[in-house]
C-alpha cells in the first residue's frame, strides 16, 4: 500500500520497507541573521536583538529549528534625540588624591580656580590587579578595599562645562545602582561601587581620597 510520511511508524516499528527513500529527512533551513538592532532602551545597560526566520520547516524526523532570536548586552550613551545620556553610565577614571595639590596650584596660576565637589562611594568589587601593582605611582591602589567608603573629588580641569560634573560621578544614577570605575595607570585595576552622597564642601581623608580624571 501507499507509504505515509507521518513519522508514527518509527515509534510503532511498522514503517514501510522503503520509508527512508519515500520519506527522506527534511532538515530545518533558516535564514541568515539580521543586522543587530539598536539597544532596547537608550541610557541603560540593556540588550540588542538580531533575528532570523524559518525558510523550511523540518519534516520526517528532521531536527527542530534552532533559536530564531539572539540577544547581546548593550549600552548606548546617546538618547534618540542625539543628546548625551546621564553621567551614571560612563565609567569613572580615578587617581590618587595626592595629585590634587598640583592641580590646584596650576589652576591658581592660570586664574582658573573653580569650585568643585566630592562624592562618597562604597566600593563593591575590586579586581586583583589593584593589589599586584608594584610601581611607585600605583601604590595608592593598595588602599582600595571592598566595603570601604572612598571620597572622590571633582575639581578643575576634570570638571566639565556646561554640565558642571566630572564624568563617571554617578549623577542621575538610581539608588544602589552599581557603577564602574577604572584606576589610571593600571588597566587591570578596576571595579564597581555605589554612590552614597555628594558633598559640596570637600573634606576627604588623606588615605581614601581620590580624584576624577
From TrEMBL:
Domain SMB: 1-28
Database matches in SUPFAM superfamilies: TSP-1 type 1 repeat (SSF82895)
PROSITE patterns from the UniProt entry: SMB_1, SMB_2, TSP1
This protein's UniProt keywords: Disulfide bond, Glycoprotein, Signal
InterPro entries recorded: SBSPO (IPR039942), SBSPON_C (IPR056801), Somatomedin_B_dom (IPR001212), TSP1_rpt (IPR000884), TSP1_rpt_sf (IPR036383), TSP1_spondin_dom (IPR044004)
Recorded superkingdom: Eukaryota
Keyword Cell membrane found: no
Keyword Iron-sulfur: no
Name of the protein: SBSPO protein
Protein species of origin: Machaerirhynchus nigripectus
Protein encoded by which gene: Sbspon_2
